[in-house]
Amino acid sequence: MERLPYLKLVAASLAFGTVISVLMLQYDWMGDAASTAAGPIDTLMDVTIVISSFVFSIVCVALGYALIKWRVKPGDEGDGLPIHGNTKLEIVWTLIPTIIVLFAAGYSWVVMNDIEQRDPDAMTVNVYSQQFAWTFGYPESGNKWSEGVLHVPVNRQIDFKMNAQDVIHSFWVPEWRIKKDNVPGITTDALITPDRTGTFQLICTELCGAGHTTMRALVVVQTEEEFEKWTRSLEAKVPEDLLLTADQAIELQRQLDEAEAGSSTGPGQNAEQS
Amino acid sequence: MAVALKQPGWYRAALGTLLGAAFGFLLVVALRAITGLDVFQTEQTGYPHVVVPLITAPFGFLIGFGAFDYWFRWAAGRPTVADDHKDHGATKWQDYFKFNTDHKVIGIQYVVVTLIFFMIGGMLALLIRAELAQPGTQIVDANFYNGLFSTHAVVMIFLFIIPMFAGLANYVLPLMIGAPDMAFPRLNALSFWMLPIAGIIFLSSFAAPGGSFDAGWTGYAPLSTGAPLGQSFFNIGVQFAGASSIATALNFLVTIITMRAPGMNLWRMPLLVWANLATSLLVVGATPFIAGAQFMVLFDRILGMNFFQFLEGGDVLAYQHIFWFYSHPAVYIMILPGFGIVSEIISTHARKPVFGYRLMALALIGIVVLSYSVWAHHMFVSGMFDWLRVPIMITTLLIAVPTGIKIFSWLGTLFYGKIHTYSTAMLFCLGFIVTFTVGGISGVMLGMVPLDIHMSDTYFIVAHIHFVLFGGSVLTIFAGIYHWFPKMTGRMYDEKLGRVHFWGTIVGTWGTFIPQHWIGLDGMPRRVADYANIYGDWNLVISVFAFILGAIQLVFFYNMIVSWRFGPKAGDNPWRANTIEWQVSSPPPIFNFEQIPRVVGGPYEFGTPGARHAIMGDEDEPEMPEPKPSTVGVPS
Q1: What pTM, to 2 d.p., does this model score?
Q2: Which residue of A has its CA nearest to B311?
Q3: How confident is the model at residue B625 (pLDDT cuts 50, 70, 90)?
Q4: Label partner for B626 (CA 20 to 30 A): which of A159, B116, B390, B635?
């Protein structure tokens, strides 16, 4: 049996994998970034792309080499070598992928914990979604509310508390990289720290009916001062009919009490309350 | 006419359908009238006078068609009639339109019917791509669009991929294990006839008030519990498709476990048999969950129960847990039989034993076990318990390991082989390896929680699912059809047209589904009828390739139909394969074997002179050379 040209095969896999990785990393796949979560997530994506490129390259090189080397000559009716397997090799290609995926899982876990780190100074914003509109309540600004447009201050963690009024909707701002379903009956939450001012689009990503395609909202990220000025310009309080369940009303009351207590003791005390 | 109505057949089936429908309708009307309710309840989710006949009419059809004649007779304790096998086998084309109990006839019935549904599902897909070719709304409105992608998915999953694999295995598997038929031929026929019923129910939902079911193939509550009448068609159609699947899986399990030819121990079973064993274990364990989930939705809709009505104390997330507990294993139901097909074809055309045969079989079982523990990776952003995410992420990524073993072992099979690429079946297998690897990689990315949070419900998912279902399952289906076409029809298909079909399909698949990864990552959500202008160019490219992909399938259909009628005679064993189905005539005789074969060795003993898998006749057992243990790349 002929010995395989290991070195050449490894070199070819490395070379091809490098070419794919370099090409793939030239482009910013996830688009613009505008939250603190985007950095770690995009890095994780890049690492995954590089590992995947080499895996893909190994498969292609092995397949290509086999086809060039052992494609049968016309008229050859013979059989290949009766090789039934190779235990060592099989252990290797079980263990190495296991190590790779466990690394990927561990790294993902670290990133997940990183982006879900709760900041004691986080500001609560309530999200109410319904077919086919978004409404936002700002409990720390006297429970004022806005419809179809979300304003948040930059560089401060926002704790979005999401409630759906009818069917499941999903809250996604691609530049923030974070997505969370709004589920009727329960309150879900997402922690996001926008780190760039500007306007973005909030997209509903869970099929919610005929108007799903157009269920969007405008997101405005602005400085703290601009944000406060904007909230002062809002008038009414969140309408009661957006609060569907008793739990929701209790939760809102808790948020309002907390905001009240926070403003009387000053912002420095917030850490102890959370 | 009166005689025709007494005999099982189409006349009696038509009568049975009418009687069944009338029974269901009158039952509802009478009960509602007696209890003082409005006789016709036509609120959005109601229509019991439509829903109940939708259940009873198919039973009327099946009874009229003769599916239960033997069982009724037996259950009633009447004298046994010796079976004269008149409903077994096919000598003329009409025999394919009967309640036929021959596994080979049923196999062909399955393949042909599922290919028809493949065409229908494909046309729905092309309508979707036509609408999405340009931003804005041109062809269909948003409501109809939601119905389009929902029915596209349901038809492709429940009426094409899953039953197509059941059909191919139906034909091949009993032959492969040296059995004269499946263990339960009547149940087998019943399984088949439930399929067109499911298909007709799904497609007729387009005629329902409010349009076809449009909550996606996932049918998430509470969107589905409040949807118009069409959703009930989905709930009921799934019951028939699911019952068909479960009955077939039970049939395969019993057949594989009890009807293997003497000498065929587990380690001599061809990998296709292993793959169907694994798939059937998944089907019988998981499919009842989707049946249950859809019953619960149906009950919420028409009986006012509160499984998923959140204002009445129902649990919205429970639907997703139950649904995915089936529907994640379902993706393995849709790929494991394909793995089996690829193993058969690669070994045969590389003229080499499957590399690491035992690990290949164990990897299948490993996938079965793991696949029951990964369902919640569809729910990372759903608002379920946070703690469930990490364990599910780990099991999800680990499932890449047995899948990787399969890919590497196929490559290992090619090394030191004599690779023939003249067969279209082999080309599809090689194309599958590369394409499926991409689908596997994007699957690993989706399994990683932080990436999934961004990618979930975008076009990246659409790209991934099509890379594994089209680039995975469908390519293996084509491989399987080409490979066993000579066995099923006795004739050879045209390899030149096969090549055109192969290259067109590969180009179409990559051209259609690769750019979907890009626009998804960049922010285009899935299940939308319209999108931002910046995605317009890529969507046009995708639509053009989708139409190429659709058009090239016409070559396949032409090749199959014309070759079936006019192709050159294929001979018994055109691929020089070892497994038992190739040792009988093409097509095989009515009960497959004059004499049950005796299995004397492994299924893939290429390259060992004198090695045999099975002995067909009275012949004495040959002296078997012991296969020498060999190693790769180590010079001895």
Answers
A1: 0.93
A2: A185
A3: low
A4: B635
**Closest-CA distance of chain B to residue A229, Å:** 31
Same domain, A242 and A205: yes
Q: Which chain A residues contact residue B522 at CB under 8 A?
A: 29-31, 174
Does one domain contain both A12 and A39? Answer: yes
**Residue of chain A whose Cα is closest to the Cα of B448:** A108
**Mean pLDDT of the B502-510 span:** 97
Looking at B182-335, list the stretches that DSSP marks H as alpha helix, in order from N- to C-terminal side: 185-204, 230-258, 271-302, 316-333
Task: Quickly list DSSP for chain A.
Answer: -PPP-HHHHHHHHHHHHHHHHHHHHTS-TT----BTTHHHHHHHHHHHHHHHHHHHHHHHHHHHHHHHHHBPPTT-----------HHHHHHHHHHHHHHHHHHHHHHHHHHHHHTPPPTTPEEEEEEEETTEEEEEEGGGTTEEEESEEEEETTS-EEEEEEESSS-EEEEEGGGTEEEEE-BTS-EEEEE-B-S-EEEEEEE-S--STTGGG-EEEEEEE-HHHHHHHHHH--PBPPGGG--SHHHHHHHHHHHHHHHHHHHH-GGGHHHH-
Which residue among B311, B315, B418 sits closest to A244, beta carbon to beta carbon?
B311
Test B454 with A55 for CB contact under 8 angstroms: no
Give how far B186 is from chain A: nearest CA, Å. 40
Same domain, A35 and A136: no
In the prediction, which pLDDT does A258 show? Answer: 81
Its domain, for residue A226, covers: 123-265
- Find residues 523-542 of chain B whose CB sits inside 8 Å of chain A: 523, 525-531
Contact (CB<8Å) B382/A183 = yes
B280 falls in which pLDDT band (50, 70, 90)? very high
Residue pairs between chains A and B whose CB atoms are closer than 8 Å: 277
Mutate to test the interface with B, among A207, A214, A244, A247 (most CBs of B within 10 A): A207
Q: What is the least distance, in Å, from the CA of A207 to any CA of chain B? A: 7
Query: Is the CB of B454 less than 8 angstroms away from the CB of A179?
Result: yes
Q: Are residues A49 and A132 in the same domain?
A: no
Contact B448 A104 (CB under 8 A): yes
Task: Answer whether B222 sits within 8 Å of A80, measured CB to CB.
Answer: no
My answer on whether A168 and A225 are in the same domain is yes
Number of independent structural domains in chain A:
2
- The pLDDT averaged over each successive group of 10 residues in chain A (274 residues) is 88 96 93 94 96 96 95 89 92 95 96 93 93 92 90 96 93 96 93 95 94 94 94 82 75 82 52 39
Look up residue B234 and give its amino acid: F
The residue among B346, B389, B405, B451 with the most chain A CBs within 10 A of its CB, best to mutate, is B451
**A204 with B530: Cβ contact below 8 A:** no
- Sorted by where each starts, the structural domains of chain B and their CATH numbers stand as 2-69 (no CATH), 100-566 (1.20.210.10)
Tell whether the model's pLDDT for residue B444 goes beyond 90: yes
pLDDT tens-digit map of A28-58:
899 899 999 999 999 999 999 999 999 999 9
- Asked, for residue A79, whether it belongs to a domain, the answer is no
In the predicted model, is pLDDT for residue B631 greater than 50?
A: no
Q: What is the average pLDDT score of chain B? A: 93
pLDDT band (50, 70, 90) for residue B633: very low
Q: Which two tokens stand for residue A218?
A: 């405008």
- Give B 341-400 residues with CB within 8 A of chain A: 350-353, 355-359, 381-383, 389-390, 393-394, 397-398, 400
Strand partners, B598: B615
Q: What is the pLDDT of residues B8-41, one digit of tens each?
A: 889 999 999 999 999 999 999 999 999 988 888 8
pLDDT at site B636: 35
* Per-residue model confidence as pLDDT tens digits over B344-360: 999 999 999 999 999 99
Which chain A residues are closer than 8 Å to B610 by Cβ? none
